[in-house]
UniProtKB/TrEMBL annotation:
Family (UniProt): Belongs to the glycosyl hydrolase 24 family.
Any single GO BP term: peptidoglycan catabolic process
Entry keywords, A to Z: Antimicrobial, Bacteriolytic enzyme, Glycosidase, Host cytoplasm, Hydrolase
Family annotation (CDD domains): lyz_endolysin_autolysin (cd00737)
Protein name, per record: Lysozyme
EC id: 3.2.1.17
MF terms (GO), sorted A to Z: lysozyme activity
Taxonomic source organism: Stenotrophomonas pictorum JCM 9942
Signal peptide positions on this chain: none
Catalysis performed (reactions): Hydrolysis of (1->4)-beta-linkages between N-acetylmuramic acid and N-acetyl-D-glucosamine residues in a peptidoglycan and between N-acetyl-D-glucosamine residues in chitodextrins
Amino acid sequence: MSAYDNAAAVVRKWEGCRLTAYPDPASGGDPWTIGYGATGPGIRRGTVWTQQQAEQRLEQDVNRFVDGVRRMLKRPATDKQLGAMASLAFNIGLKRFEGSTLLRLFNEGKTEAAGKQFGVWTLASGKRMQGLVNRRADEAKVFAGGEVGE
């Protein structure tokens, strides 16, 4: 599977797809989310998408995050490693990913230590979220060469 396919598999599993906008689970408000975790301009209470819109946006977003993470890497990554890191970046944002210990360790060649860093990203609005704990476990598994949900 390509890096895109690996990232999309994790995102699909953990974001799910909702065609009516919903508030952020941690804040109960902004950012409003739709499809497979899409946020941004034009997404607010009452926004409704078709499945096709959700699929198109997922493809655009995952490609943007895979490309964004790839530009930050100073050494080669497998498709699984890149896909897992892109899934994390999809969830936390490229700016936060860029400043992460995970990225620093990976770029230093400390792959095993980098893989352990997925578990650090389990808080939303200061609260530990079990869904993030589970998602990070899947991302770490993919990063290490496994499959989502194995």
